[in-house]
Design a protein that fits this description.
300 residues, 8-stranded parallel sheet, 10 helices, globular, Agmatinase
């Protein structure tokens, strides 16, 4: 008898992955058009999904198999024109809006981080205002970069343009002088650099920032320590640890009124190097599990 693993996130059997019965939907968006150093983020979503099929369902923290409790449906990839960023972002926003209207937790897998600006547009159309919590090595606050307002270096600036709410950045350790000045002068932005997070200086501010609010949680995989995930376009030293990222996740889930969506972006797989893909997949499942353990009753 031949067993074929279903081609979906975690390789779930149909009884745990139908659209009707699942409370979580995974939306792959393999968009890559503006990377400025290492490429390959277009292959990130597929690599995460493939690696996720090796992740154990059982979670010791919850003493169960979370994905089988609430179900995860994997949607087809959003295919857009990489050569026309304006059109691509409009298509992504529309796809996210349609997905959010399903009444389920949305998990977006990227793709370059520029996708997140369009994700925010789609989410606001359904959920209204929310605040954004960003884990990232880079500030991503430039108004344009290399001639494009849709560059990965502009992702958070485009989220701010949506006007959905304020931005809390965690783990930043690379930015240019214009971004540094914006952080100092724009009251919508609160930034904790990597050394601040290592010292725990962000914890109370994070609680206060998300308390009682809807949250969009965006994770650029380069926000993590480069030893955990070296496979990313612009790796930076002194990233966040696994425990720090999960502590952040638990706080924002416990204090917020609802996590409307989260994403995992910027994995750029390296052939024959499986660890970064697996870490990204396990992180995706763990964040998903923490959210659903606290907020499952908020979803369809």
């Amino acid at each position: 008898m031949t067993h074929t693993t279903p081609d979906n996130f975690l390789g779930l059997d149909q009884q745990y992955s139908t659209l009707d019965t699942s409370k979580v939907v995974v939306l792959p968006i393999p968009f890559e058009a503006t990377v400025s150093y290492g490429g390959g983020t277009a292959n990130g979503p597929a690599a995460i999904i493939e690696a996720s099929q090796q992740v154990e369902f059982y979670d010791r923290e919850f003493d169960n198999e979370p994905a089988k409790t609430w179900g995860v449906h994997t949607l087809p990839s959003v295919e857009v024109n990489d050569q026309d960023p304006d059109s691509a972002m409009a298509s992504i926003a529309q796809a996210v809006e349609q997905t959010a209207r399903l009444g389920k937790l949305v998990c977006v897998l990227g793709g370059e981080h520029s996708v997140s600006g369009a994700v925010a547009q789609g989410l606001q159309a359904v959920h209204g205002d929310f605040v954004t919590v960003q884990i990232d090595a880079h500030a991503d606050l430039r108004d344009e970069y290399e001639g494009s307002k849709h560059s990965h270096a502009c992702a958070m600036r485009r989220i701010l343009d949506v006007g959905a709410g304020d931005l809390l950045q965690l783990g930043i350790r690379s930015l240019d002088i214009s971004e540094a000045q914006l952080i100092k002068t724009d009251p919508r932005i609160t930034t904790f650099y990597s050394e601040n997070v290592h010292d725990g200086l962000h914890l109370q501010a994070l609680r206060d920032f998300v308390r009682g609010k809807q949250v969009y949680f965006t994770i650029d995989i380069d926000g993590l320590d480069v030893g955990l995930v070296p496979a990313t376009g612009t790796p930076e030293p002194d990233g966040l640890t696994w425990r720090e990222v999960l502590e952040i996740t638990r706080i924002l889930v416990q204090e917020s009124s609802k996590v409307v969506a989260f994403d995992v972006m910027e994995l750029a797989p390296i052939e024959q190097l499986h660890a970064p893909n697996f870490v990204s997949a396990k992180l995706t499942y763990k964040v998903m599990s923490i959210i659903m353990a606290q907020q499952a009753n908020l979803w369809q």
